[in-house]
User: What shape does this take?
Amino acid sequence: MRVVISVFLLLAAVSAGASTADASYRDIFGKEFLTKPWAGGQVEESVCISCHASDIIKPEIRDIPQEWKKSWHYHNNVSCEDCHGGDPEDAEMSMSPERGFVGTPEYSEVPEMCGKCHIGILKNYLESGHGKALKASKTGPNCVTCHGSHDIQKASIKIINEARCSRCHSYERAKIMKQALFLTEKKIRDIDNNLKRLKREGVFTDEEDKSLFRTHAEYRTLFHTVNVGLVKKSTDKFAKKLGLIEDKIDKTFRELEFRKNFSAFLMMVFIGMGIVVFMLAKTYKD
Assistant: This one.
């Protein structure tokens, strides 16, 4: 398997523009095969990672694996083939269209690639000013304009900022959008923190976690419309949904507090009984 990967790396280097004048086959063979242990104890890794992390690949795409490993995708088990297709376990077929390999999409096709998973967001994006601008000019903002490509982080209201938005237009409209989202964003963050507190107390919060995730996902989908009026109109709906989750969390906190107080009360009773028994025993001996 290591031999096959080495041959694949050589072919990938040629296709990526590596110069055989600078690196002969003997040099590449020595660097990528002879200098690496291949007998026993091998850790299986993706062909995609092996190739892109190699010294023979173009410098501008060599950092992709490290960027991806810091991303929200990586932490949620979204791998190279989930977006780009191909076979990460077979060097010969890794970039084969027969295995669904699509490679890097054209700029205007990026939303369709991301939309394979983010279906609701894609629909709202295509109907938004951003989506219409991309369709009209092929150069309008797409997903990576705001989120990046391989180092994608968990979505946050912080993504709406003057430095990013003013690259395409004035920040004023984006600022209004951010203000409209602020209260809902804060409520989601507070609920998430309270759920973490409950988990530290040993409380099972699976139902509340799922409910928050669904509400949060719907909320994220909404603001890809880039429609301030719609966001403001939907604020009450999200406030009610989040309020139901908050009520459950508050109830759980009250139950925990009651149990702690009751446990303390029982402890005091037992201590009191112990003192009484001790005093009675002492009196009896006297």
The radius of gyration is 29 Å. Residues 1-26, 28-43 have pLDDT under 50 and may be disordered. The CA atoms of residues 87 and 94 lie 4 Å apart.
